[in-house]
Amino acid sequence: MSPRWDPNPKVRRGRHVVYNLHAHLVFLTKYRRDVFNDEMLTRCAEIMRGVCTDFGADLIEFNGEEDHVHLLVLYPPKVALSSLVNSLKGVSSRYLRAEFTSRVDRATMHGRFWSGSYFAGSCGGAPLQMVKDYIENQKRPT
């Protein structure tokens, strides 16, 4: 018996769902302080990869500069993106502040590591206009 379609490794499957949800996330350090060096970025990626695994998500790509980081995350539909973001920021903040005390000046950052805001953008799949056209051209019930 052959499957109805060829398995696509980019599409994940759950018990009652087929999904391909990607989010581009950007986190800024508090007051855009230049905190990160290469060692901290490597450690931050490790921490965030572990948090993603705990949520059943995958950290596909990670990179950053002195004052911000970019993440590309594949996450399951049962995960609220805001909950994942809160854990990513909270856990990484605790570990990075504890492990890199010489680089993170708690006084100038007022006890915080990350800015309270973040960027989240959905990405992947077909362009928006293509999806809109597809839906618009579906057969209407008679």
TrEMBL record:
<dbReference type="Pfam" id="PF01797">
    <property type="entry name" value="Y1_Tnp"/>
</dbReference>
<feature type="domain" description="Transposase IS200-like">
    <location>
        <begin position="18"/>
        <end position="138"/>
    </location>
</feature>
<dbReference type="InterPro" id="IPR036515">
    <property type="entry name" value="Transposase_17_sf"/>
</dbReference>
<dbReference type="InterPro" id="IPR002686">
    <property type="entry name" value="Transposase_17"/>
</dbReference>
<protein>
    <submittedName>
        <fullName>IS200/IS605 family transposase</fullName>
    </submittedName>
</protein>
